[in-house]
Amino acid sequence: MDYSVETNRANIERSRLHLYSQRALKRTLDVVLSALGLVLLSPAMAVIALLVKLGSPGPVIFRHRRIGQGGKPFDMYKFRSMLTGGDDKEYMHYLAQLIESGRGEGRVCLPYCKMGTDSRVTRVGRVLRCLYLDELPQLWNVFKGDMSLVGPRPHVRFEVDHYLPHQRARLSAKPGCTGLWQVAGKADCAFDELIDLDLEYIDHWCLRHDLQIMLKTAALMLRGGEHVWARRVKRVPGPKTGTSGTGSE
Fold first, then answer.
1. Exposed, middle or buried by CB within 10 Å (0-12, 13-18, 19+), for 72?
2. Which stretch of DSSP H or E encloses residue 69?
3. Structure pTM?
4. Residue 66, strand partner residues
5. Which domain holds residue 207?
6. Is residue 59 part of a domain?
């Protein structure tokens, strides 16, 4: 009897069971924490809903089509932060520039951040976006199972269509409300760099990392949300590790 083969099989089975239990616990935490968040934050969400409704005509909740795990589309929920019926041609042109920047010899990588002069954003929406309060309805996406609390942020079809072949591995994980990109280099990572961070998260995923990312995200939001996504030092895996930038978004 080959004991080395049997030992290897046993080790593989233990690893498989450990991964399964970790994923089951991750889903349990998603359900419990999202349900708790929806209950505890319901008064604040009711106030936000009223402000959105009074601030401009249109629905309170905005459904945005995103691409989830395995390339499956789903509706991601947000508090509406823009005027309804706005023209998105300028934004799509801006998005294309961000994605294509850095691809090709001698091209300069542009930081993958929101368009600062988007005339579609309402006054209420500007505040909500700054503090990331427009994202609170995504707790319902987490509860339903479309998203997780931690994972790669879900992209729109236009972004997914621009993935390089190896970047499609990003779709192997369930998208999240926050992720490694948000806490490790959000403000001055280019499109390809943020995907590198997401792929690093997927390759080295464990529940402890999820808990660390949630705590760092909460700390950043308590310190002022978008204002503290400082462009201090970005950490990007691979050959670009150690690149740094200064300034603010």
1. exposed
2. none
3. 0.81
4. 74
5. 21-85+120-240
6. yes
Q: What is the pLDDT along the chain (249 residues), one digit of tens a residue?
A: 555 655 666 566 666 776 788 889 999 999 999 999 999 999 999 999 999 999 999 999 999 999 999 999 999 999 999 998 877 788 888 888 888 887 776 667 777 777 667 788 899 998 998 888 999 999 999 999 999 999 999 999 999 999 999 999 999 999 999 999 888 866 678 888 889 999 999 999 999 999 999 998 888 777 765 555 544 434 445 444 333 332 323
Q: How far apart are CA 193 and CA 231, in angstroms?
A: 14
Which runs of E-coded beta strand occur in 23-170?
61-67, 73-79, 148-150
- Number of domains within the chain: 1
Element holding 134 (H helix, E strand): none
Cβ proximity of 149 and 177 under 8 Å: yes
Half-sphere exposure of 167 (CA within 13 A, CB side): 16
Q: Does 108 reside within a domain?
A: no
The answer to whether residue 170 is domain-embedded is yes
Burial class (CB in 10 A: 0-12, 13-18, 19+), 195: buried
